[in-house]
């Protein structure tokens, strides 16, 4: 037997940890698997992926960490189990595009696991393992979040425990003077940056990007945090030319199309840090999803108030009245009420997709008919219902958090940061996703995450006095990109985008007339809204045009 591994695993068994220190992580994985079998990953913390192979009986076992930060992809080809760290490097796999995956990308702007862009190639989902034996594949989830919703622990004791766990998490991920921190000026990145200075005993090196565009620049908050914590602060303002010059580099870091536009600013930020000698960047991802910080959590709670009414009242009185008077529902004074009822009557998680860009535009209006005939337009909703339903009878806020751990973190935000930093040779670390902090969040009562409509109540109150008041009070923004406004006004970026869309029109996925309408009328009229669609189509085309990845030694 032999074992392979990557990442920064932390082995919980003392003797296995000793093996890791003396002989390396691969030897530790092998010893742990021989002891615990398929439950081995549950005895490991940190960012990791691993593989154990037994050629004598054609057995293979692979696994990824709780959030699948380090990816593994696999396929069964001619009764052989083939795997790699990237979907485009799985040996012997066809590089034929999977139509349903293309639709997933247009719908989600990423391709959620376990599907990949390539037909027959799957990606391990968070906390998942696969065992291949006797020609059969067994997929297992070795870890699922289990929420404890009736904790009676006092706020004071929870706060003290949280602050201690937070400091320990940052200390575990810090790597001496070679470590820096992203700093957007939001609650999470400011917390990580401030705590980095605390655990190292020296000013943290922080890195922020800005945009010279009204409504998008958050540099003022980053400066507040940097001044408050006394960091050695670095800033860079991203330009439209940066996008044109960097898109090709960033696209190549992803093994399938990736449409999160924040990847480009994150890359510019990491590139600045790398030039400053940083080798590891701490990111604040996870705070919103562990402690209830996204605005949609409060929005969906408001809709749930309606669903608390007796079903007979909702259906026979309110909804019948709205449905029976469509003209009255369009009056300015009644429009908001009718919209509220329209959304509230849709169950979760479908309700969160009512403003999905592809659904709003109409699948039939966007997709080329021949392509539409090859896909199932309802499959994304089925995927989401399964993930949302896995939390059983947990409270609304906890079910939404568990949902976001998959779709927002594992499928979107974490690959964004990992891809952006990999492109510069920097390692990304996520201290807020430390297992001890994750387990702590699981026992927080729902009202401490979302108190009435107050987002991340516990997190902010626990850090009051540590964070500047202005940071605690600000609304979440992050590294949003003003692409739509730029592509309208900047000739070089516009030329680049139009060339990409012109090429994409010939691929048969989207109706050419729709793209013409998008470019000629919709984008100039509403650049902030339609710029997102231009971006995801442009990035899909750029990925399809990418050169083949550098082939390393594959595994099978």
Distance between the termini: 14 Å
Widest β-sheet, arrangement of strands: 1-4-5-9-10
What portion of residues belong to β-strands?
5-15%
The percent of residues in helical segments reads 40-55%
What integer value in Å does the Rg equal? 24 Å
Relevant CATH superfamily of the domain at 2-141: Aminohydrolase, N-terminal nucleophile (Ntn) domain
Q: Care to count the β-strands?
A: 17
Count of helical segments?
25
Q: Can you tell me the overall shape? A: globular
Q: Indicate the mean pLDDT.
A: 93
The CATH architecture of the domain at 2-141 can be given as 4-Layer Sandwich
Instruction: Please outline the major beta sheet.
Output: 5 strands, antiparallel
Which regions contain 5 or more consecutive residues with pLDDT less than 50?
A: 552-556
CATH C-level class of the domain at 2-141 is Alpha Beta
Structural class call reads alpha/beta
Say what the CATH topology of the domain at 2-141 is: Glutamine Phosphoribosylpyrophosphate, subunit 1, domain 1
Describe this structure in words.
By secondary structure, this protein is an alpha/beta fold. It has a 5-stranded antiparallel β-sheet with strand order 1-4-5-9-10, with helices on one face. Strands 13-12-11-14-15 form a 5-stranded parallel β-sheet, sandwiched between helices. The chain starts with a strand and ends in a 12-residue tail after the last helix.
């Amino acid at each position: 037997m032999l074992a392979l591994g990557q990442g920064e695993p932390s082995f919980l068994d003392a003797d296995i940890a000793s093996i890791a220190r003396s002989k390396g992580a691969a030897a530790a994985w092998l010893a742990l698997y021989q002891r615990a079998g398929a439950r081995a990953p549950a005895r490991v913390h940190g960012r990791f992926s691993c593989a154990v192979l037994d050629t004598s009986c054609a057995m293979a076992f692979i696994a990824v960490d709780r959030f699948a930060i380090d990816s593994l992809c696999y396929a069964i080809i001619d009764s052989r189990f083939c795997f790699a760290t990237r979907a485009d490097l799985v040996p012997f796999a066809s590089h034929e595009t999977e139509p349903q995956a293309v639709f997933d990308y247009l719908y989600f702007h990423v391709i959620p696991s376990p599907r990949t862009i390539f037909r027959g190639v799957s990606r391990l989902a968070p906390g998942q393992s696969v065992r291949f034996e006797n020609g059969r594949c067994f997929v297992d989830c070795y870890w699922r979040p289990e929420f404890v919703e009736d904790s009676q622990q006092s706020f004071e004791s929870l706060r003290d425990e949280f602050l201690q766990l937070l400091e320990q998490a940052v200390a575990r991920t810090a790597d001496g003077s070679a470590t820096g921190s992203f700093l957007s000026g939001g609650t999470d990145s400011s917390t990580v940056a401030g705590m980095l200075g605390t655990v190292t005993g020296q000013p943290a090196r922080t890195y922020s990007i800005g945009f010279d565009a009204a409504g998008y620049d958050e540099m003022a908050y980053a400066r507040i945090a940097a001044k408050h914590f006394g960091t050695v602060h670095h800033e860079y303002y991203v330009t439209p030319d940066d996008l044109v010059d960097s898109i090709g580099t960033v696209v190549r870091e992803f093994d399938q199309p990736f449409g999160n536009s924040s990847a480009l600013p994150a890359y510019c930020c990491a590139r600045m840090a790398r030039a400053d000698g940083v080798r590891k960047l701490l990111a604040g991802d996870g705070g919103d999803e562990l402690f209830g910080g996204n605005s949609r959590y409060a929005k969906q709670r408001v809709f749930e108030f309606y669903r608390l009414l007796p079903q007979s009242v909702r259906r026979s009185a309110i909804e019948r009245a709205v449905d029976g008077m469509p003209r009255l529902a369009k009056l300015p004074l009644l429009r908001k009420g009718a919209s509220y009822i329209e959304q509230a009557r849709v169950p979760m998680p479908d309700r969160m997709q009512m403003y999905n860009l592809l659904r709003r535009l109409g699948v039939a209006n966007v997709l080329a008919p021949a392509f539409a005939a090859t896909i199932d337009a309802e499959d994304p909703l089925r995927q989401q219902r399964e993930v949302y339903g896995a939390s059983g009878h947990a409270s609304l806020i906890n079910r939404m958090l568990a949902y976001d751990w998959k779709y927002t973190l594992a499928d979107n935000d974490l690959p964004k940061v990992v891809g952006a930093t990999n492109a510069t040779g920097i390692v990304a670390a996520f201290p807020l996703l430390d297992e001890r902090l994750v387990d702590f969040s699981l026992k927080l009562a729902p009202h401490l995450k979302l108190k009435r409509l107050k987002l991340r109540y516990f997190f902010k109150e626990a850090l009051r006095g540590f964070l500047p008041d202005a940071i605690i009070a600000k609304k979440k923004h992050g590294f949003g990109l003003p692409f739509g406004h730029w592509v309208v006004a900047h000739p070089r970026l516009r030329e680049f985008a139009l060339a990409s869309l012109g090429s994409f029109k010939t691929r048969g996925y989207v109706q050419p007339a729709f793209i013409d309408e998008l470019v000629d009328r919709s984008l100039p009229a509403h650049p902030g809204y339609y710029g997102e669609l231009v971006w995801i189509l442009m990035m899909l085309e750029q990925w399809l045009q990418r050169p083949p990845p550098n082939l390393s030694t594959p595994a099978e």
